[in-house]
Amino acid sequence: MRGATTSFQIPNGTIQEFMDKWDRQGIEDLKITFYDKGYSQLKEGIENRMLMSWIFLVSGCVMSVMILLFFANLFITGQQERIAVERLLGRTKRQCSRSILTGILVLAAAGSILGSTAGWKATETAAKKADTEVVFDTAYSNLITENTKEEKVYWPEPDPVLAAGTGGGLLVAALLISCCCMKESLKKEPLQLLGSLEEQ
User: Fold this and answer.
1) Is the pTM of this model over 0.70?
2) Which range of residues forms the domain containing residue 109?
3) Which residue has the higher pLDDT, 141 or 68?
4) CA 38, CA 48: separation in Å to the nearest integer?
């Protein structure tokens, strides 16, 4: 306590809760200033980043499924003549689907590996460039800042298991979507497929 001022401590992240309780006391001629070394700003920034991360994750998943649907349908539709010819030559539906799906899986595997690797490297780069500076008012905290030693911040390395799991998930999604599209094409008889191609 110094003259007409005093200081006290409250747990981090409880400023709003404390002020709500203080306002209920009805005291209006007392000014309270909080110095939390930037914790409030840091917490708000982290929460905003988490929200944006979830938004990007959900939108990215939806976009990935839509792209997979588009290319799977485009690829299989373009191979309908080949499917019809192979079935007329005596190949079974299983053999036809295996032949077509192999090509799709090769493309999907290449895209998943490249995308996961690129995302892993981009995350690593972003983590290294993240702002580690904490800005706070030092007008009334000289004693605190004098006793505070500067510490080096070590950012965790991006988990390669997560990148591999994401790539594997995309590959499984590509397989399931392609199988569904392939199943629809195999329901039609070979002559029906050729007839629809001639009409186009």
Assistant:
1) no
2) 92-132+162-193
3) 68
4) 15
